[in-house]
Amino acid sequence: MSDSATLEAVSVDQDAGDFVYPEDYEHDAGYGLSEKTIDYISEVKGEADWIREFRKKALNTFEKKPNPTHWATKDLENIKFEDIRYYLSKGQRPTRTWDEVPDDVKETFERLGIPEKERKFLAGVEAQFDSEAAYSNIKEDLEKEGVIFVNSTEGLREHPELFKKWFGKVIPTGDNKYSALNSAVFSGGSFIYVPPGVKVAHPLQAYFRINAENFGQFERTLIIVDEGAEVTYMEGCTAPKFETATLHSAVVELVAMDNAKIQYITVQNWSNNVFNLVTKRGVAHENAEIRWIDCNIGSRLTMKYPGVIMKGRKARGEVVSIALANDGQHQDTGAKMIHAADETTSNVVSKSISVGEGRSTYRGLVHIPKHLKGCKNNTECDALLINSNSRTDTYPAISVRGNQHATQHEASVSQVSEEQIFYMQQRGLSEGEAMSLSVNGFVNDLVREFPMEYSVELKRLIDLEMEGSVG
Questions:
Q1: Is the pLDDT of residue 29 over 90?
Q2: Inside any domain, residue 2
Q3: What is the mean pLDDT of the chain?
Q4: Within a domain: residue 209?
Q5: Which of 130, 127, 42 is nearest to 84 (CA)?
Q6: Domain count, the chain
Q7: pLDDT > 70: what percent of the chain?
């Protein structure tokens, strides 16, 4: 099969997000990171003293911690923290009506389909533009039931006791260098609280857009779902293509109380100049369920390992992920499952596609201590190589102590078959169409796990990547 046909078949076209508007910001912290940067952010936001001190302690932790070496790559050394802008915003408070959003921001999100999606099926939408939410809205019937869906700045200001109770408890500041960085300069992200017994029937969505060059986006999301309640949260991410590096370093904390369910869905389509370094973790109490569904397309380097600490008896954790690595891209993704109670269950299903000279890596951690009883884990890692230059690696770390548990691990690596492509060509498909069909078939069983609206979006992204830029 020719190289040009391969590129055409499996390339991910990210042009849908590749546009930028001239910069016109009301608040700009400038380049580089210091205590002055933190003072600027806190003053603009009007934050309480304890938040400013929290930020400064986190900055100290960030400066002392080296780049991770075990769960990392040398590419992190190319991040120049002094060349990054850590806070940019057009204003502080998000509007509640779409008409009030600034025209350039409105057009950005309209081109990305946000208002249309909201009208069709979402229970609430937040749209973040660089450092702050530009728009935030939730349906009235959910508000009447006591559901809170605001950005993190509003959450801290309007619900301080609830926010502070869990903030930084699931992911401590010192968890890693980039969780410390986020803790120092976090801005934006979502705060959600679902009261006991409330089942949110339609998804809540946030959309994160990086518009500026040499920028770092550091949203902080905290979702608390009380006893017997349920919610699905979806996030999308894009950025235009710049020659210079852009940094995205988010922290996401989930808390599922007894019998609660949280489903957290991500479809990212970053441009290939973005370092995407994200820490995501949830705590599941008794008989609770946390499910991460993750699709990683684009970025220069993605390091993301959604985790679940199964703290209560019969808690369940699951990570379902798809990663596509193209030329010049490294998708370093996986999962962390920590069993901390009897009869807990975890499931990890990962599929990766490596194209051109792209590299995909699965890193998994499963820990079941000796004193527990009746725990179960299933881990499946499947990789598809498009050609001989692409690369895939698998690093599972499964630690099971005691003899009262059940675990299983499966891994496979396959290459697109020349014979299969030839056969499909004989049935009238072009080389590109045949390759696209093969790749979609590889991920189809996982795509069905996504809600209908996002499975359509995901297939569209994969098809676009296959059309003309699979390099």
A1: no
A2: no
A3: 82
A4: yes
A5: 130
A6: 1
A7: 77
